[in-house]
Amino acid sequence: MRIEEVQSTSKKERVATHTHIKGLGLDANGTAIGMSAGFVGQAEAREACGLVVDMIRQKKMAGRALLLAGPPATGKTALALGISQELGSKVPFCPMVGSEVYSSEVKKTEVLMENFRRAIGLRIKENKEVYEGEVTELSPEESESSTGGYGKNISHVVIGLKTVKGTKQLKLDPTIYDALIKEKVAVGDVIYIEANSGAVKRVGRCDAFATEYDLEAEEYVPIPKGEVHKKKEIVQDVTLHDLDAANAQPQGGQDILSLMGQMMKPRKTEITEKLRQEINKVVNRYIDEGIAELVPGVLFIDEVHMLDIECFSYLNRALESSLSPIVILATNRGICTVRGTDMTSPHGIPVDLLDRLVIVRTQIYGPIEMIQVPISCLIMCFNFPM
Ligand SMILES: Nc1ncnc2c1ncn2[C@@H]1O[C@H](COP(=O)(O)OP(=O)(O)OP(=O)(O)O)[C@@H](O)[C@H]1O
Ligand SMILES: [Mg+2]
């Protein structure tokens, strides 16, 4: 089981129609400010969402679900994005659309399960022995090739690290040199090297090199305090799905057959139930030992009337499990049939699930808001001072 080097698989969101939404626009008491954070009007729904955000922050919403219901274009999707922005970037937020579950290759419940796990975060805190500092010297030492060819080998690397307190020169293994090249480390960067795994992380460029340009791609960091060799608390935010994906990659060899196998097999079907159970076990152990902390996030299912009866029964069960995120549903349907049955039901959601939901209604806009919404879009998109 790998917990290090987990890459984030979170979906990149670029929903341009909602770029003006920067939060819910509430004041300290939780009352809606007329035109703020990109929102206009819809005060009651915003305040209700504010209460939900408070409950999520106090971890009192776990295992419950919220339904945003109202006529089309009254800002349900916008409210859900507002909630995610209020929660901050550390709380995982996984948006999906009801129709995403229909695929000819992957089971509906599998898609739901994946998204559930994308919405459950894990904060791993580890005390690691590291060498940290600003790189003052980076010189690879070459030697004759050991395999007898004409090429040269790197026998070791000498690296100088500087902190406020002192400097140190380290002689490192050639594999760490590869890691240094991969991270594009150069003299003047602040880096840390983990002592037992040899993993290299580039923190940024030392602020002594900061220039006066207004716009730059570099991130400047201060030169580290303390000794070069020290214990450092490293915090990693991952989701359960990141762990699944990192551990599910095929471990086959480099031959043609396994390459073919990798190409033929869609990566999505590789995460098995067994693997998930293994990961849950390790995660539970980590939580018991106090190394990791669970951060239940938010799963947002838009157009929820598109789900069918199988998905709803799965949702019912998933909401009850101990590892469950907060689920936000949104729909613009009134009374309609539940997909996969001939029952009619409010919002196209079976009544048993409906009973467990907190429902927030959005109101249709009056002429004044109709004029103000596009103005608010313009103001926020062009960042005019308000
Ligand atoms: N109160 C508001 N303040 C500012 N912008 C808003 C507000 N309500 C809606 N908008 C904007 O109006 C547009 C339509 O809203 P949105 O897509 O959220 O509606 P919806 O309720 O999800 O509709 P549908 O039911 O069709 O999915 C979006 O660009 C949204 O950002
Ligand atoms: Mg919508």
UniProtKB/TrEMBL annotation:
GO CC term, one of those recorded: nucleus
Coarse class of the protein's main subcellular location: nucleus
Lineage: Eukaryota, Viridiplantae, Streptophyta, Embryophyta, Tracheophyta
Family: Belongs to the RuvB family.
Organism name: Aegilops tauschii subsp. strangulata
Stored Pfam families: TIP49 (PF06068)
Catalysed reactions, as listed in the record: ATP + H2O = ADP + phosphate + H(+)
GO MF terms held by the record: ATP binding; ATP hydrolysis activity; DNA helicase activity
Protein name, per record: RuvB-like helicase
Keyword annotations of the record: ATP-binding, Helicase, Hydrolase, Nucleotide-binding, Nucleus, Transcription, Transcription regulation
EC number(s) recorded for this UniProt protein: 3.6.4.12
Localization in the cell: Nucleus
Domain AAA+ ATPase: 62-369
